[in-house]
TrEMBL record:
InterPro entries linked to this entry: Acyl_CoA_acyltransferase, GNAT_dom
Protein name (Swiss-Prot/TrEMBL): GNAT family protein
Domain (N-acetyltransferase): residue spans on this chain: 15-151
SUPFAM superfamilies, alphabetized: Acyl-CoA N-acyltransferases (Nat) (SSF55729)
Gene3D superfamilies per the UniProt record, alphabetical: 3.40.630.30
Length: 195
């Protein structure tokens, strides 16, 4: 299987569904409380339909495979995530463009979603590298990536120009196949405490 193939992934905490217009209302509500995150690109409620369309367009180009994250406790879509920067010939993918409603921060939702995405990448798509990139100032995201067990590869300085014209330093992490069993065990242990 390749990284761009639409797929639904589920465990006892979340279901990752191919992102579509049917998720717009839930996701618009999920953006509440994220307005002050200057270091990330979360759409406002009115911008959610356009962001869904943008991500679906990138999927059609083979660059991204976008998902809605559905919290199975409530049945609501509470965020988005993607496989992106897809490099199928080299079996490399990035997990990124992820945002979650503040109401699920600190719950099982993020580690459960990462468990599904990483498991699919390594076990079904035969990835040789899964990477994560985040803004240098996004301490919350950096801490979450480090809790996964991803290794710091480095910082790409002046890597991107943000929408407001500011220059972004990007922190790059990765997980390799021989590291996946330990990362998987760590995620499974964290999720077992949430049952």
């Amino acid at each position: 299987m390749d990284f761009a193939t639409p797929v639904t992934l589920q465990n006892e905490f979340v279901r990752l569904e191919p992102l579509g217009p049917e998720h717009a209302d839930d996701l618009a509500a999920a953006t509440a409380g994220l307005e002050d995150r200057w270091y990330t690109s979360v759409p406002d409620a009115e911008g959610v339909p356009a962001e869904i369309a943008r991500r679906r367009g990138l999927h059609a180009q083979g660059w991204m495979n976008p998902f809605a994250i559905r919290d199975l406790r409530t049945g609501r879509a509470v965020g988005m995530t993607t496989y992106c920067a897809i490099d199928q010939p080299n079996r490399v993918v990035e997990i990124g463009y992820t945002w979650l409603s503040p109401e699920v921060h600190g719950t099982a939702v993020n580690p459960a979603a990462k468990r599904l995405l990483l498991g699919h990448a390594f076990e079904e798509c035969d990835a040789i590298r899964v990477q994560f990139c985040t803004h240098f100032h996004n301490r919350q995201s950096r801490a979450a990536i480090e809790r996964l067990g991803a290794k710091l590869d480095g910082i790409l300085r002046n890597h991107r120009i943000m929408a407001d014209g500011a220059l972004r330093d990007t922190v790059v992490y990765s997980i390799l196949p021989h590291e996946w069993p330990a990362v998987r065990n760590g995620l499974d242990a964290r999720l077992a405490k949430r049952r």
